[in-house]
Specification:
CATH architecture of the largest domain: 3-Layer(aba) Sandwich
Mean pLDDT: 91
Number of domains: 2
Distance between the termini: 41 Å
Structural class: alpha/beta
Helix content: 25-40%
Largest sheet: 6 strands, parallel
CATH class of the largest domain: Alpha Beta
Low-confidence stretches: none
Radius of gyration: 20 Å
CATH topology of the largest domain: Rossmann fold
Strand order of the largest sheet: 7-6-5-8-9-10
Length: about 300
């Protein structure tokens, strides 16, 4: 049995699922997810949508229960609540934390443990590649949870040389601590990206997606573009669905946009991503696929 600790927004959840799918296939073990922290108030404030993968995609999620945790932790189960403060691997050898963020770790596919609890974010492009065919099937949007506006717009953008532009604001802009770590992609990045796409694509039609579309008025470069401003807060996955239907993508430093671009199945797609994912200089060696352009 493999259990993956799961928290964060939609993009974070998808990376964790992709990692879990890869390692469970390697070990031929049942895959379960620890989503218990989504019940805590402090995490609801961080992510109001909660755990949504089995809602927005046609996949079955097996959620770990007490008996599953007991197989790994035994009577030391209460220590699981201390995972943010201590290295659980010092006490439980079958608890495997992520060693380095944004870096593929081949050793994770060569473990001998019978039952394993994985603890990390697992944000790199290599794990999704290992089970790509099946993963794309798993991440098929459940159209019952896509609103009529998005379904109608998707049909339109698939007939155009559509380009999605993601502008991540929200906590990246309003939270001082988050802003100091991530920052927001500046206007220079979007100007260069739009210019690059305009040179490579004939008659591009731009669609701008943002978690705070009301603040886009300060970005004059978007004045003549289509602003998609209905899919925010509790139904944000509609935006990811629409991004995936565009033929070309310009993403922000956001896992939400990353997955919107990854799910784009157009065989001649062009994806532009920021070269610097973090404002504080954190390196992301294996985050961006080699076929994507970094500006």
């Amino acid at each position: 049995m493999i259990i993956c600790y799961t928290i964060g927004g939609i993009g974070n959840q998808m990376f964790i699922y992709a990692f879990g799918a890869a390692v469970s296939a390697k070990y031929n073990k049942e895959l379960k997810f620890d989503i218990t922290d989504f019940n805590h108030k402090k995490y609801k404030n961080f992510n109001i949508e909660g755990f949504v993968l089995d809602k927005i995609f046609d996949i079955k999620i097996v959620k770990a229960n007490f008996f599953d945790f007991f197989k790994i932790f035994g009577f030391g189960y209460p220590l699981l609540k201390m995972k943010y403060k201590i290295n659980l691997n010092n006490f439980f050898k079958n608890v495997i934390p992520e060693k380095q963020l944004f870096k593929y770790d081949q050793d994770l596919l060569n473990l001998k443990n019978e039952n394993i609890y994985f603890y990390g974010w697992w944000q790199n492009y290599i794990f999704p590649m290992l089970e790509e065919k099946q993963l794309r099937k798993s991440f098929t949007f459940n159209l019952n949870n896509i609103n009529d506006y998005s379904i109608k717009l998707a049909k339109k953008i698939q007939k155009q040389n559509s380009v999605s532009i993601q502008v991540r604001l929200g906590d990246y802009l309003d939270n001082k601590e988050t802003n100091s770590i991530y920052g927001i992609c500046n206007k220079k990045y979007y100007i260069k990206s739009i210019d690059k796409i305009s040179k490579l694509v004939k008659n591009p039609v731009f669609y701008v997606f943002s978690d705070q579309p009301e603040k886009l008025s300060s970005y004059k470069i978007f004045d003549d573009f289509n602003i998609v401003n209905v899919n925010v807060n509790e139904n944000s996955w509609n935006d990811m669905y629409l991004m995936s239907k565009c033929k070309y993508n310009i993403i922000a430093n956001s896992t939400f946009g990353w997955w919107g671009a990854w799910l784009n199945n157009y065989n001649k797609k062009i994806v532009i991503a920021p070269k610097n994912w973090f404002a504080n200089g954190t390196k992301t060696p294996d985050l961006i696929p080699k076929s994507w352009l970094k500006l």
